[in-house]
Design a protein that fits this description.
With 568 residues, the chain is an alpha/beta fold. Helices cover 32% and strands 21% of the residues. The chain contains 18 helices and 25 strands. It starts with a strand and ends in a 13-residue tail after the last strand.
Amino acid sequence: MAEHELVIRNGTVVDGTGSPSHVADVAISRGVVTEVGVVSSSGRREIDAEGHLVTPGFVDIHTHYDGQATWDTQLAPSSWHGVTTVVMGNCGVGFAPVLEHNRERLIQLMEGVEDIPGTALHEGLAWDWSSFPEYLDALERRPRDIDLGTQLPHGALRLHVMGERGATQQPATPDDIAHMAALAREAVEAGALGFSTSRTLNHRTSLGEPTPTLRAEADELVGIARALGDAGKGVLQVVTDFTERDAELDLFERMAAESGRPISVSIAQGAASGDDWRVELDRFADATSRGVTMRGQVGARAVGIMLGLEATLHPFMYSDPYLAIADRPLAERVALMGDPDMRRAIIGAARVDDTALGSRSIHRARFIFQLGDPPNYEPHPSTSAAAEAQRRGVDPLEVLYDWTIADGGHALLYQPILNWHGQSLDAVGEMLRHPAAVPGLSDGGAHVGTICDVSFPTTLLQWWGRDRPEGRIPVEALIAKQCRMTAETVGLGDRGVLAPGYRADVNIIDFEGLRLHAPEMRYDLPAGGRRMIQRASGYRNTFVAGVEVMADGESTGATPGRLVRGAR
């Protein structure tokens, strides 16, 4: 009889520890790795992985599947990119705890902050929970393809405890703080992986109101963090503008130090400044060396936006002649836009709306590029819309118009914003190498009409491990960052490494054949809501707890994924 349920033979094992890769077999039984090396006994199923990488499953610690996870059994697109564990509840937004009269506010917050259609949330959310433990129970009732962990969102917590005072950023009283702290402790003891908050002006509700947590004071944040410390469980996660950098760094270190809980903070290179991120990551490394664990979540490429007729933003969205046809079907719009008179009218009336978040970006032709297929996420400045207009001797809006209606109106234009100072990804490479940095910020499940950064793990491996002409990073280091370090950041010590006793979350990857495809719009959310999705080639097999969930880019239909309650 076969001794193992599965044996993967002759693959190049990249085990997640950072050790040199080596050819070996991997044996799996009962959802865990049982042997790595020369496996002499047989498996009920055997796979020849010669010429392929065999890696741990990827752990994505920054997603927003808070709504989708309640109605969908497949956490795609993440599961299409080698990800076997996702963590949501980031940036202080989510759907629990909640009182019935606050449900609409939480939908408006998620819709505004994470660009998830409110109609889809209204249709898809069952609201069969009130408390955070009840929300966990609801998540646990649904099987899914990959594992899922979640954090307690500060926005929902503040609104639940403080009502209108919380929504309007008023200071929390000592009683408010004590109540929030008690609920935070209840959440992590029930299985929340941690607590998250937002301090950025970019996060607004669909009505344009700032996130409830924007001006939360130190006593409130430290008080909640201490509750996690009292429970001895959970991590802390923050997104911020760093408008008062030194004071905020002091605050974040205080939260971690006084609670004894690790903290991670979103880090990016600013659009107007090239070096602030170094100060932040160096501060985190210094604090960690003193026993206060602090890490920066960094992206695998620029943080930017997609522009297109199917997207949330495009260069002519405020032109009155375009607005007159905006509700027409896409093919009809494109046909009308091809008329010379309509073209002149739309371009002549093109404008921006300074009151709308993100709209000022739609005419920044110097920084707008054709994305292409395969997508190019590090385009040369000479290929921008402004450069092309100069070559053609026309207004940049003429070029943007041509690009926008290309491919029957399905074309997507790319505008890198953060991590793009100097118009290259050199800073991203430095961030990824920094000892205090961990891959994150993919925002899987969110910004579905504006970005598609859920493919960050594939970019990490393909671009930084293989294709970038200069500054490539060893595959062993990349896998260690995306697997073991991400798992450790959120307290999941049972995964991210291929070694006996670890969870059998495994990828078999055709490294030379690894390719990203262009993002595309799909209309498959509840109520026909749209979302931008992106596929990849090269992931031959993905296993979750030893069960194959993806084979050659297609779902097997298996649902071994479960809710992860608390640290492992």
